[in-house]
Write a structure and sequence with these properties.
Blueprint (H helix, E strand, L loop, with lengths): L24 E5 L5 E6 L6 H7 L1 H10 L2 E4 L7 H11 L22 E2 L9 E4 L7 E12 L3 E2 L4 E3 H7 L2 H10 L1 E7 L7 H5 L4 H10 L3 E5 L3 E8 L2 E3 L6 E3 L3 H4 L6 H9 L7 E5 L7 H14 E2 L8 E5 L3 E5 L2 E2 L3 E11 L9
Parallel strand pairs: 2-3
Antiparallel strand pairs: 1-2, 3-16, 4-19, 5-17, 6-16, 6-19, 7-18, 8-15, 8-17, 9-11, 9-14, 10-11, 12-13
Helix pairs in contact: 1-3, 4-10
Organism: Streptomyces pseudovenezuelae
GO molecular function: dioxygenase activity
Protein name: TauD/TfdA family dioxygenase
Length: 347
C-alpha cells in the first residue's frame, strides 16, 4: 500500500508513515459488535507498516469482535493488498481442496472472491469448515464496489451456536459431519479445479495427508468422503463455535426441483452431499434451523473502494449479497489451522 509523493516522478510510488507521538489510527465499533473499524488519522499512514507493528492490538480486536475493517488507507490495487497481508503473515495459503469457483489474481496467494452469478446469494459459511485444515484468518480487499448490493455479510459463530438447541449442538458435536463429493459430474467443480492440479498422484497424496477417502471411477471422475468437525472451541478464546458447512453441502440447500431431481437419480451424480459422521442422513428441518440461526445473526457493512477486511475465520462466518454493476473483491488466506488433533471428527 503506497502513497504518491506530490513531487515524485510519475509512476514511481513511495511508502510514507506518520511518525512522532500522534496516534496513527482511530478505532470505532459498529453497533452489532462484529466489526471494529480502524481508520488513519492522516492520509499518509502506511497500513503495511501499521499492521506489521500492531499485530497484538489487531488480534485483541479480532478476539473481541471477530472482524477488523481497515478503511480510508491508500490501498489501490492487488499489489498493495498483497503487501498488507504479507506484513501480517509471510505465507499466504493456496485454495487447494476448494468448494467454489474462483481464480488466482495476478499476485501469488491472492484470489478473486467466489465467482457466482451476480444475482445469487452466497449463504453464510466459515471458509473450508468442510475440511480438517483451514485458514485462521481471511483477508478481503474491495478494489471495486458494486453499484448496488454486493456486501460481504458476516455472522458471529459464537452467537449462531448459542441460538441452536442444546441437544442439536451436542448431537453434531458428538457425531461430526461426513462430506461426500463427486467431481466430474458436470454440475460442480472438476477435481482439477478443486485440487488445483491435473496430477492424480498429487490429489491422492493430499487426500491421504488429510484423511480424505477417495475413489476414481468412470472416465475421469472422483468421489471423496471425509468426516470433519461440526462444533469446535476457539483455540484462543475457548468459545464454543458452530463450525461446519452441513447447511451448504446438503441437497436441501438447492432449489426444491433441483434437489428432487438429484435425489431421484444416481447418487454418483450428486455433486455434494452431507451426512452425520456415522453415515446417517441429516433431516432437512434440522438444517433449516441452522440456516435460521445464521439469518438471525447476519450483519452487513457496505463496501467502500479501498477497504481491507480481516476476519477470524473461526469466530466469524461470511457470505455475499447479490449485486448490480461491476464488482471486484479479492481474497487472501493466512495462518493455517490443523483441527484434526483437537476437534471432534465423528464416531
Amino acid at each position: 500500500m503506497t502513497a504518491t509523493s506530490p513531487t515524485g516522478v510519475r509512476g514511481i510510488r513511495r511508502r510514507v508513515a506518520v511518525s512522532g507521538t500522534q496516534e496513527l489510527v482511530s478505532v470505532s465499533h459498529r453497533w452489532h459488535s462484529v466489526i471494529s473499524v480502524v481508520a488513519p488519522t492522516a492520509p499518509s499512514v502506511d497500513l503495511v507498516h501499521w499492521v506489521g507493528t500492531n499485530r497484538s492490538r489487531v488480534e485483541a480486536l479480532l478476539g473481541e469482535r471477530g472482524a477488523v475493517l481497515f478503511r480510508g488507507f491508500p490501498v489501490s490495487d492487488a499489489e498493495d493488498f498483497h503487501a498488507v497481508v504479507k506484513s501480517w503473515s509471510p505465507e499466504l495459503l493456496n485454495y487447494t481442496y476448494g468448494s467454489t469457483p474462483r481464480s488466482r489474481a495476478d499476485v501469488a496467494g491472492v484470489y478473486t472472491s467466489t465467482e457466482y452469478p451476480a444475482d445469487q446469494t452466497i449463504p453464510q459459511h466459515n471458509e473450508m469448515a468442510y475440511a480438517r485444515i483451514w485458514p485462521t484468518h481471511l483477508w478481503f480487499y474491495c478494489h471495486r464496489a458494486a453499484v448496488a448490493g454486493g456486501a460481504t455479510p458476516l455472522a458471529d459463530s459464537r452467537r449462531v451456536a448459542a441460538r441452536l438447541d442444546r441437544s442439536l449442538l451436542d448431537e453434531f458435536a458428538r457425531r461430526g459431519v461426513r462430506y461426500v463429493r463427486n467431481y466430474g459430474t458436470g454440475f460442480d467443480l472438476s477435481w482439477q479445479q478443486a485440487f488445483e492440479t491435473g496430477d492424480r498422484a498429487e490429489v491422492e497424496a493430499l487426500c491421504r495427508a488429510q484423511g480424505i477417502e477417495f475413489t476414481w471411477y468412470g472416465d475421469d471422475q472422483l468421489r471423496t468422503s471425509q468426516i470433519c468437525q461440526a462444533v469446535i472451541r476457539h483455540p484462543v478464546t475457548g468459545a464454543e463455535l458452530w463450525f461446519n458447512q452441513a447447511h451448504l453441502f446438503h441437497t436441501s440447500a438447492l432449489p426444491a426441483e433441483v434437489s428432487a431431481e438429484l435425489l431421484d437419480g444416481d447418487p454418483a451424480d450428486i455433486p455434494r452431499q452431507v451426512y452425520f459422521g456415522d453415515g446417517e442422513p441429516i433431516e432437512d428441518a434440522v438444517l433449516d434451523e441452522v440456516r435460521a440461526a445464521f439469518d438471525a445473526e447476519t450483519v452487513r457493512e457496505p463496501w467502500q473502494e479501498g477497504d481491507v477486511l480481516l476476519i477470524d475465520n473461526m469466530l466469524v462466518s461470511h457470505g455475499r449479497d447479490p449485486y448490480e454493476g461491476p464488482r471486484r473483491v479479492l481474497v487472501a488466506m493466512t495462518d493455517e489451522h490443523n483441527g484434526s488433533q483437537n476437534e471432534c471428527t465423528g464416531e
